[in-house]
# Entry
Amino acid sequence: MGKRNSRIILDANWWVSFAIMRFQNKIASVITNPAFDFFSCDQLEPEIKKILNEKRIQKYLDSKIKKEFWYYYFETVEYFKIKSSISISRDKKDNYLLAVSKDVNADFLITGDKELLVLKGFENTLIMTLTEFLKYINKK
# Structure
């Protein structure tokens, strides 16, 4: 039996960055890597939509880029319905990311959120920034 792909949860801001940078930033090298599987849930997608529709973000995106982004997003992620109820983050609205990480047995949660980063890990999931993740995988 072969080694399974790393299971990754990307926080909403990284997905938005991917769209804003026209799919050409550091996160793109991670998202397009076939060694990684990405997961989404019923709370992540609406959070991404909300951020993409904020006025401060609108100036970076046109409808074509948004359409391309959503196409790529839905082709890339595996949707998962959250079953666990978690309440350990100091920012309660972030608990769903920990719950989906637990439910899909994620290896990594990539985020820039300080309230999540302070945890460093949860169950079997390492919580880290993109920079830390890139250093980590390049050491392997």
Notes: The chain is about 45% helix and 15% strand. The CA atoms of residues 55 and 65 lie 16 Å apart. The first helix runs from residue 12 to 20.
